[in-house]
Amino acid sequence: KLPTLAVVGATGAVGTVMLDLLSTRENVWGEIRLIASARSAGKRLTVRGEQVEVVALSEDAFDGVDVAMFDVPDEVSAEWGPIAAAKGVVVVDNSGAFRMDPEVPLVVPEVNPGQVRNRPKGIISNPNCTTLSMIVAMGALHAEFGLTSLIVASYQAASGAGQAGIDTLRGQLAKVAGSPTLGSQPGDLRRSVGDLGPFPAPLALNVVPWAGSLKDGGWSSEELKVRNESRKILGLPNLKVSATCVRVPVITTHSLAVHAVFEREIAVAQAREVLRDAPGIVLCDDPANGEFPTPNDVVGTDPTWVGRIRSSLDDPREIELFVCGDNLRKGAALNTAQIAELVAREFSAR
Ligand code: 2RA
């Protein structure tokens, strides 16, 4: 008997991608149950070509469920993850509720798959999409050259802020489309784009050096997630990480400019060879022919795309590179589904 899967939060931007992904997976899951807020209960969504009715989030909704993928706000995961786990459900949580909990593994199947079994709370956390957009490449290079420091700037898509982010950006772009002047006078966008939605400043024709909430020392929650999650996933508690997270007017796909320092010297050719052979990575690095990853080439694909690989001009142990990853796929739904499938194999191995 194939394990029963529940998708909690099936109606959100990530949940929608989760259902698409599940529809491409054969012989992994038996029943797939869709759970969402009472507001969405009764909706019918298509999974594996069949219409499935969404049921309201409740304790009974987890009866008979073996694995549950959660994509809900932190506070909902914090409340309902333990309730599901107490019923014997293995919870794969995409929220930030448990990511830094020492009793909850933070898993990227290409980097630390063995951590899936280390789940004393019955909960496994999925990293933040910004971390996930670069960590598969960093994990591959770390294994060979010993990572010691990361300095990154992210260029994050609007869909990282959910459907509200997408709707806000598209609404603002419609407002500025056709204007021959907007974006050329101080503050003219703020006066004309209307609703800022989940962003603290206009996003269309702009960049916003902010994502998440304010933390100590002027750091954003997003920047501290990149730092703390990279350390946990790579098992490097003293890894030096400095992140600057920026929102850009892209619908979906995060990008990061990465400066990486290693213990050992790393030539560009060596880095390319490691990345070319690494699972889950596409090398796209031929600037002479205009080939480097851009969000629009990467959106809708599963891998991490890597390009612009250069040796630092100051130290042979340092390289620069540019990575893109679809923040709704590998950044959220795909990685969560890959973790859930690792758990599903435990059931089929029984
Ligand atoms: C964002 N990484 O982009 C955060 C959450 N998805 O807003």
TrEMBL record:
Q: Which residues bind substrate?
A: Q156, R247
The pathway this protein participates in, as annotated, is: Amino-acid biosynthesis; L-lysine biosynthesis via DAP pathway; (S)-tetrahydrodipicolinate from L-aspartate: step 2/4; Amino-acid biosynthesis; L-methionine biosynthesis via de novo pathway; L-homoserine from L-aspartate: step 2/3; Amino-acid biosynthesis; L-threonine biosynthesis; L-threonine from L-aspartate: step 2/5
Q: What is its EC number?
A: 1.2.1.11
Alphabetically sorted, this entry's keywords are:
Amino-acid biosynthesis, Diaminopimelate biosynthesis, Lysine biosynthesis, Methionine biosynthesis, NADP, Oxidoreductase, Threonine biosynthesis
Matching entries from SUPFAM superfamilies are given as: Glyceraldehyde-3-phosphate dehydrogenase-like, C-terminal domain (SSF55347), NAD(P)-binding Rossmann-fold domains (SSF51735)
Membership in a protein family? Belongs to the aspartate-semialdehyde dehydrogenase family.
Q: Which PANTHER family match?
A: ASPARTATE-SEMIALDEHYDE DEHYDROGENASE (PTHR46278:SF2), DEHYDROGENASE, PUTATIVE-RELATED (PTHR46278)
Which named protein is this? Answer: Aspartate-semialdehyde dehydrogenase
Species name for this entry?
Actinocrinis puniceicyclus
